[in-house]
Amino acid sequence: MQERGKFSNKIGFIAAAAGSAVGLGNIWKFPYETGANGGAAFLLIYLLCAFVICMPIMVAEIAMGRHARLNPYGTFKKLGSRTWGIVGLIGIISGAVILSFYNVVSGWAFGYFLQISFGNLLQEADFSAFFTRYIADVGDNLLYSLAFMVLTAAIVLGGVQKGIERWTKILMPLLIVIMLILIVYGLTLPHAGQGIEFYLVPDMGEVTANTFYMALSQAFFSLSLGMGALITYGSYISDDDHIVNSAALVTITDTLIAFMAGLMIFPLVFSQGIEPGSGPGLVFVSLPGIFEAMGPGIGNIIGGAFFLLLCFAALTSTVSLLEIPVAFITDQYKISRKKAVIGLATLIFLLGLPSMLSQGAVGWLSEFVSYGGKSHDFMTVIIDIFSDIGLPLGGLLISIFVAYRWRMHNFSAEVSKGNPGFPGSRQEKFVSIMLSYVSPLVIFFMLMVIIMEKFFEVDILSYLF
Ligand code: PHE
Predict the structure, then answer these.
(1) What pLDDT is attached to residue 462?
(2) Does position 281 have pLDDT exceeding 70, yes or no?
(3) Which one, 11, 165, 244, 368, has least CB within 10 Å?
(4) What are the residue ranges of helices labelled H in 158-191?
(5) How far apart are CA 198 and CA 273, in angstroms?
(6) Distances, alpha carbon 376 to alpha carbons 12, 281, 367, 384, in Å
């Protein structure tokens, strides 16, 4: 077997894990999910899901990976059994499928960088019509998503430590700075206050089972949990890393950036009279308005810089997504890293084509299937199954695996390596109760509710309450 990669130090791992977490999930998905699911109430439930349900699962993933020093399949098999290995395998496949559509959306962000910096996007009369036209345009999308995949592959080829750590440390702070500028500027626009009210003053009357579920699945997606990205990264860290602190830091960073994205978007949405629940186009439709308001020149520069930084944030996430199957292939088979990277990147790029074409370019993919009383395009179906359902399901299985198969004392011993105070601590009790009881029950219950509602239009809650 070839030598496995390793992060150079604690900060390197935190930078890479935060780089994986922070991405389109925070800036593209979080605002549109918040907008579609009631605003502030969603935010509140999201925070609860991220810190109470997801953070312990993050600790579990990292500890599993570090103990086994293998990819998700190898990890489940080594710590559990061949059958458990299948769970890891499904995670790896989900990661590949998620990358396939994620790469397409990354291509949109790249196109927006070019269109704002060098094109005439900001002169458009109707940003919504532009977006609709833009994502249906096969030429640009094909080119940019191909470029994105090539870049991702090039970084993954360079190996975990060199590629990811350096970029994240420089570019993430820059992204935060530019977001702060946009937040402050956005607040000066007319009707910005309504956006803040929508985002920060909860209306619990709007909350449904769906709100809880979408907040939960969004937290999994945003924190890169539930399919083994952090098992993979965990397999590259050293024994004296403090897993609990690292997980807390990653969760806080990721949540902060998602929160800021909401602060940035909702004032714009309300000042431009955009429907907050209008879906995946929300960020692409509302942001150009602020760059336009800043005026030509400065608007093009700030707008271009924003989308370029968003591309970097997306890149550190696509890198982590591609690293999962690459780790699997190189751990389990005698295939060189180079061959694995090239083969997988090609395969996943091709897998993304139907998603790309489902945004208006090809009719039947754009109206792929109907469920829940609506027709859905191919990309939405993939997101529904592999992300919205797949990731919480993965989290459920990880909790059960750690608590009942690998066992809490083995888990605790692993975490204690870099954290000698862990056994007997309050941290340990909390994580143990969450993984053994709360997370499995809560996630299972929510999964049942949502699957029945989404695909069969049966509202279980109405029978219970
Ligand atoms: N967390 C990333 C984001 O928010 C997406 C991602 C999901 C990355 C799953 C890796 C694994 O953009």
Answers:
(1) 73
(2) yes
(3) 11
(4) 160-187
(5) 13
(6) 40, 15, 5, 10
Task: Name the phi and psi angles at 37, rounded to 5.
Answer: -120, 30
Contact criterion met (CB below 8 Å) for 222 and 30: yes
Asked whether the predicted pLDDT for residue 161 surpasses 80, the reply is no
Give the type of residue at 98: I
What string of DSSP letters covers 226-264?
SSSHHHHHHTTS-TTS-HHHHHHHHHHHHHHHHHHHHHH
Rounded to 5°, the CA angle 359-100-151 comes to 110
**Per-domain residue ranges for the chain?**
10-356+386-438
The pLDDT of residue 262 is above 70: yes
- Our answer on whether the CB atom of 255 is closer than 6 Å to any ligand 1 atom is no
Query: Which carries the bigger pLDDT value, residue 111 or residue 209?
Result: 111
The structure tokens listed for 408 are 């809490």
Task: Note the helical H segments in 49-81.
Answer: 55-68, 72-79
Query: Which among 253, 181, 193, 199 has a CA at the least distance from the CA of 223?
Result: 253
What distances in angstroms separate CA 322 from CA 143, 155, 342, 374, one per listed residue?
19, 10, 10, 32
Nearest protein CA to atom 7 of ligand 1, as residue: 224
Distances (CA, A) of 246 to 20, 218, 250, 312: 13, 21, 6, 22
Q: Is the CB of 98 under 6 A from ligand 1?
A: yes
CA distance 179 to 287: 11
CB 24 near ligand 1, within 6 Å: yes
Question: What separation in Å is there between the alpha carbon of 22 and the centre of ligand 1?
Answer: 7
pTM attached to this predicted model:
0.96
How far apart, in whole angstroms, are the C-alpha atoms of residue 196 and residue 264? Answer: 9
Split at pLDDT 50, 70, 90, the class of 204 is confident
Q: What does the DSSP 8-state code read for residue 159?
A: -
10-356+386-438 has CATH 3.40.50.10490 classification = no
Distance 144 CA to ligand 1 centre (A): 19
Half-sphere exposure of 224 (CA within 13 A, CB side): 37
Cα(319) to centroid of ligand 1, in Å? 10
Structure confidence at residue 160 (pLDDT): 67
The single-letter code of the amino acid at 15 is A
Encoding tokens for residue 388? 């919205």
- CB of 221 within 6 A of ligand 1: the answer is yes
Q: Cβ atoms within 10 A of the Cβ of 374, count?
A: 9
21 close to ligand 1 (CB < 6 Angstrom): yes
Residue 59: is its pLDDT beyond 80? yes
